[in-house]
From TrEMBL:
<protein>
    <submittedName>
        <fullName>(diamondback moth) hypothetical protein</fullName>
    </submittedName>
</protein>
<dbReference type="GO" id="GO:0044877">
    <property type="term" value="F:protein-containing complex binding"/>
</dbReference>
<keyword id="KW-1071">Ligand-gated ion channel</keyword>
<keyword id="KW-0813">Transport</keyword>
<dbReference type="Pfam" id="PF00027">
    <property type="entry name" value="cNMP_binding"/>
</dbReference>
<feature type="domain" description="Cyclic nucleotide-binding">
    <location>
        <begin position="29"/>
        <end position="98"/>
    </location>
</feature>
<dbReference type="GO" id="GO:0005249">
    <property type="term" value="F:voltage-gated potassium channel activity"/>
</dbReference>
<dbReference type="InterPro" id="IPR000595">
    <property type="entry name" value="cNMP-bd_dom"/>
</dbReference>
<dbReference type="InterPro" id="IPR014710">
    <property type="entry name" value="RmlC-like_jellyroll"/>
</dbReference>
<dbReference type="InterPro" id="IPR050866">
    <property type="entry name" value="CNG_cation_channel"/>
</dbReference>
<keyword id="KW-0407">Ion channel</keyword>
<dbReference type="InterPro" id="IPR018490">
    <property type="entry name" value="cNMP-bd_dom_sf"/>
</dbReference>
<keyword id="KW-0406">Ion transport</keyword>
<dbReference type="GO" id="GO:0005221">
    <property type="term" value="F:intracellularly cyclic nucleotide-activated monoatomic cation channel activity"/>
</dbReference>
Amino acid sequence: MNSWVNRAFTYHWQLMQAAYGSHINSCVIFAGAAPQLRRTLASRLRHCVYFPEDCIAQCGRADRCLYFIHRGEVEVLTVHPNLTESVYDVLGPEDSFGIAQVGVILSIIYA
């Protein structure tokens, strides 16, 4: 049974690395990280699906997440004082966001 568990973990790790490893490898935060750490991080990514009109993150709310866009687009909106919105930027595949809040969290932990 133990060898089956090890094989299942190895297959999972290889699948996640193949599918999402490029996100970790291209992220500025992990540029100097050891390859083994980057592989481990890729295997721990959680796949989430968002639909049009879903709010993924909001300014002022830290959720300790770093988001990588694998497919599709994400609009970054600016909310004006009169509560209207305008598109500030459009992020696409291989883009990421949430780096600032992760960087703040990491600097607090390791300070």
